[in-house]
Amino acid sequence: MSKEPQIVHSFPKNPLEEVRSSITFFKGKQYVDIRIYYKGDDGEFHPSKKGVTIAVDLFPELEAGMQKLKEVLEEE
After folding, report:
1. Residues forming a β-bridge with 35
2. Confidence band (pLDDT; 50, 70, 90) for 76?
3. pTM of this structure
4. In a domain, 56, yes or no
5. Cα–Cα distance between 45 and 18 in angstroms, integer?
6. Phi and psi at residue 10, in whole multiples of 5°?
7. Domain range for residue 19?
């Protein structure tokens, strides 16, 4: 039985979309998921195909990439 996704952080991208960072589970394994959610006709948010899901052991690489992006943006 799979566990429910755990939303860790979300923020609005625009009035009809939001970005969610969450911990998800698939076939007993844990993953990090960063995905765009869109507001459907029912008023609820639904996951889109726009996003990335990576194994937890790759998270340090993603984190390092985000840190490098931050450093470049701060230089500009």
Report:
1. 20, 51
2. confident
3. 0.84
4. yes
5. 8
6. -150, 150
7. 6-75
